[in-house]
Amino acid sequence: MIRVENLHRHFGGFRAVDGASLEIATGSITGLVGPNGAGKTTLFNVIAGALPPTSGQVFMDGENITGLPPHELFHKGLLRTFQIAHEFSSMSCRENLMMVPGGQSGEKLWNTWFGRKRIADEERALRAKADEVLDFLTISHLADHPAGAISGGQKKLLELGRTMMVDAKIVFLDEVGAGVNRTLLMTIADAILRLNKERGYTFCVIEHDMDFIGKLCDPVIVMAEGKHLAEGTLDEIKANQQVIEAYLGTGLKNKDKEAVE
């Protein structure tokens, strides 16, 4: 689904992404790991249109999407979440979800005067879909709670829910487990697996927690110094001497739960 060819993103003399080439297969849950400064989040930002590349190309389903802005990629079904959840804190969880789809009739002043029935019908449909999403994510009890008052893990679930309010094809998850307790992290993992298996979502996941990566991801791509270093199953990555010597450290051989960013 996604093909990245010789991608560069430089900040002055610093090469955050330095000739990375990789592919994310349709229907996969691909893990992206590597040390701090490896270029993972910058790579996400370039693919998702938040940053223009210095050079190189990004393709989605064979279409060159290099440099397209986030709103255009959103309409193509490419979405991303962030390390820190971005919710409308004073609005309810349900309202946060209902805000997601674009092109709503109520956005146009003319329709507020002459299209009230259409607006009301759309809102009923959006409310029903939002409630379905909240139920899927097992947080329906939070529907009327202000989004700013729920826990960090619940906010991550709500962010995942936003991707379900539109026709997402691929979702880039940036440290979805950051600051999340173990119980909620497994709830998030289960939701990702269900979205992948039941609704055909493709995911690419940056995450520290290797148990989380191991539960979800195959393949796992390793980045270091802005480049694609290795790829395989998590067990293959852990046993890869080049990976260990380059940046993970020999402790990974003996610590199955070693965290890698």
From TrEMBL:
Sorted alphabetically, the Gene Ontology cellular component annotations on this record are: plasma membrane
**What is this enzyme's EC?**
3.6.3.-
Under what name is this protein listed? Lipopolysaccharide export system ATP-binding protein LptB
Q: Does the keyword Cytoplasm apply?
A: no
Name the source's superkingdom. Bacteria
> Sorted alphabetically, which InterPro entries does this protein's record hold?
AAA+_ATPase, ABC_AA/LPS_Transport, ABC_transporter-like_ATP-bd, ABC_transporter-like_CS, BCA_ABC_TP_C, P-loop_NTPase
- State if Transport is listed as a keyword: yes
Query: Boundaries of each ABC transporter domain copy?
Result: 2-250
Task: Kindly state which keywords UniProt assigns to this record, in alphabetical order.
Answer: ATP-binding, Hydrolase, Nucleotide-binding, Transport
Q: Which Pfam families match?
A: ABC_tran (PF00005), BCA_ABC_TP_C (PF12399)
One Gene Ontology MF term? ATP binding
Group of enzyme by EC: hydrolase
